[in-house]
Amino acid sequence: MKFQIVDAFSDKLFGGNPAGVVLIDNGQEFPLDVTMQKTAAELRYSETAFVKKMNENEFTIRYFTPASEVELCGHATIGSFGALLETGVVRDGSSYILHTLAGTLQVEIKDGLIWMDMALPQVVNTLSRSEQRQELANVMGIHEDDLYLEPQIVSTGLPDILMGVRSLAVLNNIQPDFPALSKLSEQYGVTGVHAFSLGTDKVTANCRNFAPLYAIDEEAATGTSNGALTFYLYQQGFIKEEQENLFIQGESMGRPSKIMSRLQTVNEIVKIQVGGVYKRLAQGEIYI
């Protein structure tokens, strides 16, 4: 099977978030789960996607971190369709149906920009009690007074604690207690914490994402988390329908990423899309 390494949410090599992409040969089935898990652990990227073409306009993708399978991954989806573009399997200016464990989604490609649907947004929980806010702040290495807005667990495919902080300086100074964050993530049933500070000018927010429960201490670009943040900021009145939003992530890791999003309401149902570009780093054969 062919594989590629693709930097998602960046048009420059060694920017964005790298993903492994394994392209299942035509007529072949997905490898055994244990094989895909071991492959993801061997490649050591935060996520590796296994992509199977069902027909001309329909694909199934499964996503594995080094520790476990996850239902949806934004940057690995952008990376996967980048890999499919590079191999001529998909075309610019077209739309595709994508089957994931989080549901059936649509992917659109236009002028090299890949847009993917998020799962329907869900508010899972709100950390409204003072002791909850204090615990979160302690785990993240900041003071409770540094928090901005009410932390909330939101999912557009994967649940995250969305934690706003008062300034970019506070955001950059976050130093989580990773074992404690893993325990807290397990307690709340979330992937991790998506921290943000509101941006200026054309930047909607600057972000950092931490998911040590899934063997990802920090991630350079997270599509699902910024999809959830789009819904959260829309509810808070910071984002309007139809506007294009820009989230900057990964700067603290030396891998600057640009994640775009847009939100619209169709028949009273909120639809969120996340988009970005990509850069292919490597390709080859994988023998599994």
TrEMBL record:
Q: What does the UniProt keyword field contain?
A: Isomerase
GO function term, MF aspect, one: isomerase activity
**Annotated active site:** E47
Q: Indicate whether Isomerase appears among the record's keywords.
A: yes
The family database entries (Gene3D superfamilies) matched by this protein are listed as: Diaminopimelate Epimerase, Chain A, domain 1 (3.10.310.10)
* Statement: the UniProt record of this protein carries the keyword Isomerase: yes
Question: What GO cellular component is one of the record's annotations?
Answer: cytoplasm
Say which family it is in. Answer: Belongs to the PhzF family.
Question: What is the name listed in the Swiss-Prot or TrEMBL entry for this protein?
Answer: PhzF family phenazine biosynthesis protein
Species: Clostridium aminobutyricum
Q: What is the lineage of its organism?
A: Bacteria, Bacillati, Bacillota, Clostridia, Eubacteriales
